[in-house]
Amino acid sequence: MSETLYHYMRKAFSREAFGLSGDLAIFTPFSILSPPEETHGFILGRDDRGREVRVNPSKLPNMHGVIVGSTGSGKSTLARHILLQAQKMGIKEWVIDPHSEKSYTSIMDTRLELTVEKIYFMEHPGWSPEELASELSYYLEKIYAFPGYRSILREILAKCFEEKSLYPFERVKNEDPNLKRIYDDLRKLYSEDGFKIRELAEKNLHITFPTLVSRELHATASQILLLLLEGYMRSLGSRNRVDLIVVLEEAHLLKDYFLRLFKEIRKFGLSILAVTQLPREFDPRIFQLAGYVVALSGPESYIADIASLFSLGREEFDHIAFGTRGNALLFRSGDPRPRRIVLEIDPFVL
Ligand SMILES: Nc1ncnc2c1ncn2[C@@H]1O[C@H](COP(=O)(O)OP(=O)(O)O)[C@@H](O)[C@H]1O
Ligand SMILES: [Mg+2]
């Protein structure tokens, strides 16, 4: 082995190389030498050399993932393929799904139809009343597009969480039609004898909504459930393995939440898999922070969006262009080169 190559290899496998940020990683020898293939985690398919390609959220700096692809490209099918494997590993799972796809129900134990069935969100382990009020009001202001409402909502919700009742909100709701709108939506989700987060986190849940639920109500319900779940998992302590995976369909509706969540480096065993057909709606930083991103096929405008988020080479571009179903690119955090893969979906979920 030549002297230069020897130094090159040493550098590639030295510890310092691991400390580099994603942006700099592209200049390390890792971009020349293929990293060893993952041998644990969810099997996605095979690469161009016929090797099995897996993704292991527990090993990645960030446990969260994103599936992007145009409508019909196979996003939900891939999500079900991953869920089926997670089940076999004993991982609990939720799907939050505004389309109420029957194909999810067939692999989950329990269907929870929100607004028909209710939740009790006054019990919120892992959050103080003020903290939860502050977080939730931040997202409600964005979901309803009522600029300037965050502070009033925070004050009202903090009282609700302290008193464990929606009554403080009910008292003020008629002072303002926008407040009334939010109150009415919360009322549709809430009941004193509704499900508590501790109960929900123990189940494999397909969370759905009746067809006439508004976009805002769906986003609010998803947001409340995710905040409660996040607090609950945090209250159980830090750990590196995935205990619960949440597939979130139409994830662009909660794009502000993802940016915050994906920045969180500590691990509480919660892995979110955001599914969307609108990659452009997400802040580009979400794709940089995600532990893994799977890009499925789509038309040229969609591929152009993907190419602007990740610098794609010609071969990568072509691999997911022309709507070839089953073709995908896998981007793993810390691995600067995307993998071109052909998915091998469990026939049970097709
Ligand atoms: N890898 C695949 N191989 C063969 N058929 C697939 C594959 N992925 C999805 N399909 C089929 O394509 C259709 C659309 O898939 P779906 O997952 O619902 O797409 P999306 O969620 O992106 O809209 C379904 O009928 C599904 O069975
Ligand atoms: Mg789908």
UniProtKB/TrEMBL annotation:
Reaction catalysis annotation: Couples ATP hydrolysis with the unwinding of duplex DNA by translocating in the 3'-5' direction; ATP + H2O = ADP + phosphate + H(+)
Domain AAA+ ATPase: 61-296
Gene3D superfamilies: P-loop containing nucleotide triphosphate hydrolases
GO MF annotations in UniProt: 3'-5' DNA helicase activity; 5'-3' DNA helicase activity
A Pfam family reported for this protein in Swiss-Prot or TrEMBL: DUF87
Family: Belongs to the HerA family.
Name of the protein this chain belongs to: AAA+ ATPase domain-containing protein
Origin organism lineage: Archaea, Thermoproteota, Thermoprotei, Thermofilales, Thermofilaceae
